User: What shape does this take?
Amino acid sequence: MDGVRLHRLGKRLIDLSREVTTQAGDASLTPAEIAVIEDALKHPGSPVTDITARTGFAQSHVSESVARLKERGLVETEQDPADRRRTRIRLSGVARQAVLERAGRDADDVITQAIPERADRVTELLDELADLLL
Assistant: This one.
């Protein structure tokens, strides 16, 4: 498999995973907000500068996203006691629960819609691939 094909496969898997984890009625988030939430989940209590470095978004964009997420009750902020100029970010309980619920959604229906004639085999292969790579 060449790099382009691997990239296309990765993009297709990301698209399918978005279908699984996003349903009608779910909160609409920008790509930067999603990146901030994912980073805060993996690195609770991180300052904005660290989130900026890991996500690749500009600091102003991350700061704006944090402000919007805070208004919606999805993240909580606190001043860093060691350096009061820095703000530390963590997910709120509501956001953490929503992430866990979304992550737990079953992908079978989305895979069946995408590849109806081979859905069982595709699911089997994806499970095997996940076991090998993750």
Residues 21 and 109 are 12 Å apart (CA to CA). The chain is about 65% helix and 10% strand. The first strand starts at residue 46 and ends at 47.
